[in-house]
Amino acid sequence: MSAPAAGTHGVPAGRASGILLHPTSLPGPHGIGDLGEAAGRFLDFLAAAGQSLWQVLPLGPTGYGDSPYACFSVFAGNPLLVSLDTLAGKGLLEANELASAPAFPATRVDYGAVIRWKMPLLRAAAERFLRRPGPDGRRALDAFRSEEAWWLDDYCLFMAVKRRFDLRARQKGRAGGAWNREWDRDIALRRPEALARWKRELERETAMEEAIQFFFFSQWDALRAAARQRGIRIVGDLPIFAAPDSADVWAYRELFLLDDEGLPTVVSGVPPDYFSATGQLWGNPLYDWAALENQGFRFWIRRIDAARRLFDVVRIDHFRGFDACWSVPAGSATAERGKWARVPGARLFETLEQELGSLPIIAEDLGVITPEVNALRERFGFPGMRILQFAFDRGEAGRLDAGNRFLPHNHTVDSVVYTGTHDNDTTRGWWASRSSEEMAYLERYAASSDPEVEWRLIRMAMSSVCVYAVVPAQDVLGLGSESRMNSPGTTSAANWSWRMTEASLTPGLASRLRGLAEVYGRLPAGS
Length: 527
Prior knowledge:
Elements: E1 16-20, H1 37-48, E2 53-55, H2 84-89, H3 95-98, H4 111-131, H5 134-171, H6 179-182, H7 185-188, H8 192-201, H9 203-229, E3 233-238, H10 247-251, E4 266-270, E5 280-285, H11 289-294, H12 298-310, E6 313-316, E7 324-329, E8 339-342, H13 345-356, E9 361-363, H14 371-379, E10 384-387, E11 415-418, H15 427-432, H16 436-446, H17 453-463, E12 468-472, H18 473-476, H19 507-519
Parallel strand pairs: 1-2, 1-12, 2-3, 3-6, 6-9, 10-11, 11-12
Antiparallel strand pairs: 4-5, 4-7, 7-8
């Protein structure tokens, strides 16, 4: 890794640009994007387009609402991203098994249908691998188990136990539930005799979970190596909080603010603001920061170290939560009754630097950001984020203002500029909802009335002084609101489900992006 540029700390130096695309959005025949051939073709497109960054969302096993920000583990990989074709190529699946796939939609992920079809195949492949791994496979699996045991054992047991209690609930005509509400008390509270009994009873199931995680990390490592060969860095995403129904909260109860039954006493959210009169109630249990600090922040050292295993650069979601978290009493209907609870963020990052060295972190500093949050980010040299869509709407200020920090003339080198993020509408969809005043302001600012408004913003992003420029794939493709990745605060079935088609990324698009990267000094060295 090259030395960091001034003001960007551990983020690799040099102007660069790339595309935001979660692997689930890749094309392919099995209902969901994966880490197989389509991912390799996407890397080829990035290289042809002169792009050196691929930004993804969290890669964990998705739970509630299929959200990558609500995972069953902050350390595990998502089994749904494992390429079945790659497993078939290793003799672990048969062609007729893959041919049994239902007629999945091409432009959406139907998560329920994918889970029902894909998970039994993954378990079948895992069982075959465990029966006949071969000498190389056995050595690789044993090494994986040994290196990752500190999280792997808890995660695999958690998932095996969860399936057992979910099945029991369905047999009684109920949906499954979280570990602290649905499980028997002895295993929910991890009593030693219960842990030993369940480990014996579910030994086969946990071994299959281990094998599936081995598949995921083997395929991800191969994909990341292919990215390196093309000069492409992967930007990952790290949610600040753990999901309430997760192996992490179950295994590390002492690090969260929970009662004696394992239920949260306070939960996360954000206070009422311009966008929501009642705030946002996220529902994650809050950390017991005193307990984390007493343990030398070991949990966070492991989190960041695990993220560096996966990614070249790590975007931390809700960075302002390292200065203070909005703490809402559990059971509240809205986030209105919350209060700010201080967090020892400076001591955390000092410890992380001491243990891990330079930190390649991007801080998601959106929303209402205080001087204290800015000071924390600047002290450790983490680039922040600038969103161009926010530059041309009235927002909280209620007016269009040349002092808006998201306008390109107010950008700084220690920032990453985006046209929009996974939580925004696509730029074309956003544009369709602008007022005539906002439209006129953008046209005056950009000195352009190009009907492809997304390319006006892409050009602005590329020309910005920000060290990195990242564009969602939907904007590169000129798609409307029907292709939006997520609508925050909703549980729409469309959330997280968008997929591109096989023919989406054309040589013409690659040439257009490459031209902008070249003009604005973002072309990788040697391209």
